[in-house]
Amino acid sequence: MLPPCGKVTEQHHSSTSTAEEEDKERGRGHGKAVHTRHGAGLSLRKTRGSGRLLYRCKSVSYWSPYWRWPTDVCGVNCLIETSLGDIMSQDPPDVWSHLAVVACGPRLEETLTMLKSALLFSKNPLHFYIFAETVLHGSFKDAMNSWPRMVRTKFNFTIFPITFPDDNEHEWKKLFKPCASQRLFLPLLLQDVDSLLYVDTDILFLQPVEDIWMLLSSFNSSQLAAMAPEHEEPRIGWYNRFARHPYYGKTGINSGVMLMNMTRIRAKYFKNDMTTVPLRWEEMLLPLLQKYKLNITWGDQDLLNIIFHHNPESLFVFPCEWNYRPDHCIYGSNCHTADQRGVFILHGNRGVFHDDKQPAFRAVYNAIQTYQFGGDLVKTLLEPLEASLRSTTHTYCGRSSHTFTKRLKQSIVPAQQEVPRGR
């Protein structure tokens, strides 16, 4: 169960975003209410009066619907405030991109580096939904609020606690890596969010987020999620050689980058191998875990493979340059679209951003991590990165590292014209 409303103190929005400044202008005047921009989860209603800001919590989630909140928290207008109020305060749906990440354990710096990469090249505003252990909330807020003012005008953020159903909380938490299965519950927790891009913490954007966001418009009427194949080459595939459960297609799918139309996910009845009756998303997850928990290796990713094995018409498969991993180059290049077009999103799974096994991946991570907002993107990001990559050609991935910078160079040209200076 989510904590009581009055105790959720770590969920905040960036206090200096463009959207909020516009709201302040519209809400000028004594006693007028101002809504900060948000997508879902905790929204903060700021009411001016008596020289202070009063915060009213309106958190509504799948496990904590509005009717469960005490009347002194939400009052009689809670339903209107949490749904109609959200709609009234939103920008047009084609303006904002919505990005979610789940961070537990020592993932703070890695997550911040991912968020930085998203901001470096995106022109459209971003809303970040950060699900994190409570101990990390303050560090996330402090870090993002310390970024230069012109960067902070490009995004809003909401921080959520890690939340699982009460009855099976321990079982979900221990599945694969800590908190990893939280992504399965995003359609239920973010009820007011129509579409969402989920990424793992070990992701780096090498081109604008809105480019992958645009793939939503490529979905046909039955598709509700998009992911990349787990492998391009079946001879080195994991699922087709070792899986003890159903999986999607020939080599399975990787869930590290997952684009979702969550409205469709919430509405669909899914075919399954547990009953002849199609089940809703929330009805299917626990029975699926109970049936396959002794047969799955990669946790929630395996469950997604099982789901889309039985519902292949619901998945849009995007090519490997949108989720480029060491497996695409460790034995020689096998992501041919990345060879032609460059890497769009770099996925440093298996910890390769932090060890010496794949120095080309680590070089990209270090370059973005150490880049200071406001610096010259060519001189302080691209050129040092190219120098580092030249020392990695003794590895197969190092020999393919020109694909890492090919798209990056194209992203830097327009971004360089908008580099924010100062705070």
Automatic annotation (TrEMBL):
One annotated Gene Ontology cellular component of this protein: membrane
Subcellular location field: Membrane
Presence of keyword Lyase: no
Chief location bin: membrane
Keyword Plastid in record: no
EC numbers, comma separated: 2.4.2.42
Gene Ontology annotations of biological process type: protein O-linked glycosylation via N-acetyl-galactosamine
UniProt keyword terms in alphabetical order: Glycoprotein, Glycosyltransferase, Membrane, Signal-anchor, Transferase, Transmembrane, Transmembrane helix
Topology in the lipid bilayer: Single-pass type II membrane protein
Bias kind Basic residues: ranges: 27-38
GO molecular function: UDP-D-xylose:beta-D-glucoside alpha-1,3-D-xylosyltransferase activity
Region Disordered, annotated ranges: 1-41
Entry-linked InterPro entries: Glyco_trans_8, Glycosyltransferase_8, Nucleotide-diphossugar_trans
Coiled-coil features, chain-numbered ranges: none
Catalysis performed (reactions): 3-O-(beta-D-glucosyl)-L-seryl-[EGF-like domain protein] + UDP-alpha-D-xylose = 3-O-[alpha-D-xylosyl-(1->3)-beta-D-glucosyl]-L-seryl-[EGF-like domain protein] + UDP + H(+)
Family stated for the protein in its record: Belongs to the glycosyltransferase 8 family.
Protein purpose: Glycosyltransferase which elongates the O-linked glucose attached to EGF-like repeats in the extracellular domain of Notch proteins by catalyzing the addition of xylose.
PANTHER family (alphabetical): GLUCOSIDE XYLOSYLTRANSFERASE 1 (PTHR46012:SF3), IP22168P (PTHR46012)
Protein name per Swiss-Prot or TrEMBL: Glucoside xylosyltransferase 1
Organism, as annotated: Knipowitschia caucasica (Caucasian dwarf goby)
